[in-house]
Structures are given as C-alpha cells and as structure tokens.
Amino acid sequence: MTDPLSTPRPATCWVLGADGHPFGVQTLAMGVFSPPGGEPRVGVRVGDHVLDAGAAADLGRQAGLVGDGPDLAAAWLTPSLNAFLALGRPAWSIARRWLTEVLTDEVHRELAEPHLHRLEDVTLHLPVEVADYVDFYAAEHHATNVGRIFRPDSPALPAAWRHLPIGYHGRAGTVVVSGTDVVRPTGQRKGPADPAPVFGPSVRLDIEAELGFVVGGATGLGERVGVDRAGEHLFGVVLLNDWSARDIQAWEYVPLGPFLGKSFATSVSAWVTPLDALVGARVPLPAQDPEPLPYLRGEVSGLDLHLEVSLGDTVVSRPESRELYWSPEQMLAHLTVNGASVRPGDLFGSGTISGPGRDTVGSLLELTWNGTEPVTLADGTTRGFLEDGDVVTMTAWAAGPGGHGRVGLGEVTGRIRPALPSMY
Ligand SMILES: O=C(O)/C=C/C(=O)CC(=O)CC(=O)O
Ligand SMILES: [Ca+2]
Ligand SMILES: [Mg+2]
C-alpha cells in the first residue's frame, strides 16, 4: 500500500553482491550464527554474507557512532535474539537505521568489513529462545478443508471462526531451526475401521506452511496489547513448518485440540525478517464479515508474501499469505485480551496458509485430500503423506519497500528420519 513514487530505492550497499539481492539492505534479516570455532551470536544477513552485528556495534560504540542509545552490542553479543527483542520497538528502529548507515556508507566499511562472514562458512542456530508458542488457524480455505476432512458431519467452519482468531498453545521447547532432522513421531492412532487404537510410527506425517510472528517487548500480567499497539510488540516474521501427524492428531484432539500430533517438532527459518522490511508487502485483509468485536478493530492489514513449498525437487504448492483472514495485530490483540502477558521471544504461527486452488494449499492433508489423491513428484514417485528421507523446504519472498526489488525470507527445511525402534 506504499506509493512506489514516494519511496526511494534502497541505498547502495558496499557489501559485494548485496544490491538487488533478496537479502540486501532493504531486508536486514536477523538471526544467530557462529563463525568457525566461535560462539553463537546475533548476525544480520547481507547478501551472501553475515555481519557479526554485536562486534560491529561494539566498534561503533568505541568510535562514538552509536551514541547514548540502547546497548546494541551487549544485546547482540548473546546466543539468541531475545535480549534485542526485549529492548522493544524504539531500539529496533535505531538498530535498523544504524545498520543501514553502516552498510551503505563507505566511511564505515573499514569498521564493519572485518566482521563480515561468508554465509557458507558459518553455522546458523535457532534465532530465538522461544518463550511461549501459539498456533492460530487463520486461513479460511484451510479451516474449511480440515473441517470437511475431520468433521464431515458438522459445518466446515467452526461457529467462532469469523468472530475470533482460533488458536491453541503449542510446545515452545520443540521449536527447531531449519535444517534440523525430524524423527517420525510414534503414538496412538485409531482409524474409523480399527476396532481399537494401535501404537506405532505415524503413517500420516504432514507439513503445514505458515508464517511465524516473533514478539518482543514485555507486558505485565493483566495488561492487554490492543490492535493499534500490537506493532510495538511485533518484531518480525519467520517461515514456519508445523509438522503434523494427522493420524495421532485425529484420534487425540477432541475436545482439547492438537497435542502430541504436533508437539514433536515445529521448524522455523534461521532468519527473522523484520516487519519494518515488509511495509511494501502490506495489503488489505479479506473483508471481515461480520465486523469483529471492537477489541479486534483498528488499522489492520495483511501481508502479501509468496510462499513455495517443495517436496524434494518438486514444488508442490505456492500458498499466498494475503489469504489470511486475521492480521498479526488482531492475533496478538486476541492472545492478550484476557490479560495474558507476553515475553520477548514469544512466537505465534498464522495457521496453515491455504488458498482456493489445490496448487495453493499449505498441507498434504489438503493437497492429497487425506491421502486419497496422491501427488506425483518429479522423480515419478507419489506421496499421500511424508516418507522417511523426504525433505520439505519452504521459501518465500515479498515485494520490497515501494515495489523496488524483493525482500527474501529465510527458508525452512527439514528431513524426515525413521521413527525410533518401538519398545512396546
Ligand atoms: O481443524 C482441526 O481440527 C485441526 C486443524 C489443524 O491441524 C491446523 C492447525 O494446526 C492450525 C493451523 O495451522 O491452521
Ligand atoms: Ca498449524
Ligand atoms: Mg508443530
């Protein structure tokens, strides 16, 4: 919704290959990396390099470039983004301006260049020590499809769905960084034709393509974050794969919701894209009818990110995040309207992003209609659900500020490893 003519092109960056790159200075994605032989610390992705942000800020402080603002060096010389997230939006804005200045003005090159590492030389880590993890259900096509498959005798969309962003609390401790193998979960399942539940490895292991929102700043118990203040607490976006064992889920979920069917692993991209990089990707939300209650009203908009989901070498779907019915601001307002506090490092998922077409759904459950219409991969094999050894990768991009270039989002990938041998 920005006017292309009024938004200047991003400034030129002195880092080789960064201009025109989806991870150029228009993006400034943040994560945690370790250089060869070094400890994990906060890094900023610049093209195919990573800037050791804390080391650069430390030098900047010594050189008098940072001023009396927040102690960015102290926050960044730590093994997660949490300390930086705790500083809140004013510090995030200062940091973004400072990083832009350092990376675009040649006079700072001498200071910063020794702290640039080639991406291929570093190890990437989980960017955030996840405090609480919530997963919403905000895509209408997904909620409708899952309703039809799981509850064929009930209305597809739950009665509350258009009145509030439905969600559940997930397991923060099993959020893992992209590249982490996922062991096929084992548990109970009972198909409609089975006389009794059986125990064993899931035979309906699935994916869910989502956006994850990383929260910063803290609120106290009993406080609320209104829609119009939510932006102060929303730092950035990760790509999120909510691995789901549909057979375990279908047997266990009534009436309290997903439990072991989803708690074994949730993968996120190593790079967190600041929402400040996505101003050019803001779009009107789908029409909300009925009008939500007053606490969910305000200046709200959606995000137009273009996702791609691959199984091995085959792109199986291209979900579009503008499909999401609720905005991230409404989700955070709802999450806190009862007085639940937020902590730096809270993470919430958007819910599986599915559009109207089969080529835009965010799960195999929908793509193969619960395994009944398998998808054919480039190598000629077919899949209803995931097999051991399968690699699932999700990527995304958005238009850059003012429509100039692209903002890249980090990828989230994971390989399925066989289940542990059964002890029972
Ligand atoms: O409708 C259900 O019973 C279950 C839905 C899901 O599994 C989806 C979920 O995790 C929320 C989402 O990703 O949209
Ligand atoms: Ca989910
Ligand atoms: Mg999960």
UniProtKB/TrEMBL annotation:
Q: Which Gene3D superfamilies match?
A: Fumarylacetoacetase, N-terminal domain, Fumarylacetoacetase-like, C-terminal domain
Cofactor(s) the protein needs: Ca(2+); Mg(2+)
Citing just one GO molecular function, the answer is: fumarylacetoacetase activity
Q: Which SUPFAM superfamilies match?
A: FAH (SSF56529), Fumarylacetoacetate hydrolase, FAH, N-terminal domain (SSF63433)
Pfam families, from UniProt? FAA_hydrolase, FAA_hydrolase_N
Question: Which positions fall inside the Fumarylacetoacetase-like C-terminal domain?
Answer: 134-415
Q: What is its EC number?
A: 3.7.1.2
Annotated Ca(2+) binding lies at D135, E208, E210, D242
Please state the pathway this protein functions in, per its UniProt record.
Amino-acid degradation; L-phenylalanine degradation; acetoacetate and fumarate from L-phenylalanine: step 6/6
Keyword Calcium listed: yes
Report residues binding substrate. Answer: Y137, R151, Q249, Y253, T352
Ranges in coiled-coil conformation = none
The protein's name: fumarylacetoacetase
Species of provenance: Terracoccus luteus
